[in-house]
Amino acid sequence: MEVARAFDQLLVSSFNDSYATLGSKCRALERSLLRKVVKTANERRELKRRIAETLFTEAFAREAAWPEFGRALRRIQRLGYSHVERRYHVACLYAQWCHEHPGHDASGGRRLLDEAERSIQRLPRDSRTRVGLLKELAALRIRLQSLPERL
Fold first, then answer.
1. How far apart are CA 91 and CA 110, in angstroms?
2. What are 78-102's pLDDT values in tens digits?
3. Are 75 and 60 in the same domain?
């Protein structure tokens, strides 16, 4: 609960900050929480994932350039995904980022979408999560016109 509250307060207080400033604040919060709150290795890994997911999402929302966006993407990939919905979220934002930056090679975005789709398809067939994510993924692919090699 303390971790969630700290995140919420940080995001609200950093609403108008640059991505670089937000990144510094997130890393400071991470260090503080790792020292004071988090006790187990699993909690440490999950906290790092949550910070990485936040920075990645904010990099997209704040229209960060590739150096910052790519760094956030690589960190989240290195830490792994908490669950299939996180993998889907990252893949969708990366594919959209590629679509919005025509000079960037979109093959990575397509690859992440394909990986996310395979993960989603491993969910039980009657899972509402599976059905909903596959529907949304199909709509995204149509909207992005299947991401040509170079946009």
1. 8
2. 999 989 999 999 999 999 999 999 8
3. yes
The answer to whether 79 and 45 have CB atoms below 8 angstroms apart is yes
CA distances, 57 to each of 15, 39, 51, 97 (Å): 13, 26, 10, 11
Q: Which amino acid is at 109?
A: G
H or E element that contains 6: helix 2-13
- 131-143 residue pLDDT tens: 999 999 999 999 8
Q: What is the pTM of this model?
A: 0.86
Cβ neighbors of 4 (< 8 A, separation 6 or more) are none
Return the C-alpha torsion angle 113, 61, 65, 55, nearest 10: -80
| DSSP H/E element including 47 | helix 41-61
What gap in Å lies between CA 20 and CA 150, rounded to an integer?
Answer: 28
Q: Within this chain, do residues 57 and 109 fall inside the same structural domain, yes or no?
A: no
Asked whether residue 48 falls in the same domain as residue 14, the answer is yes
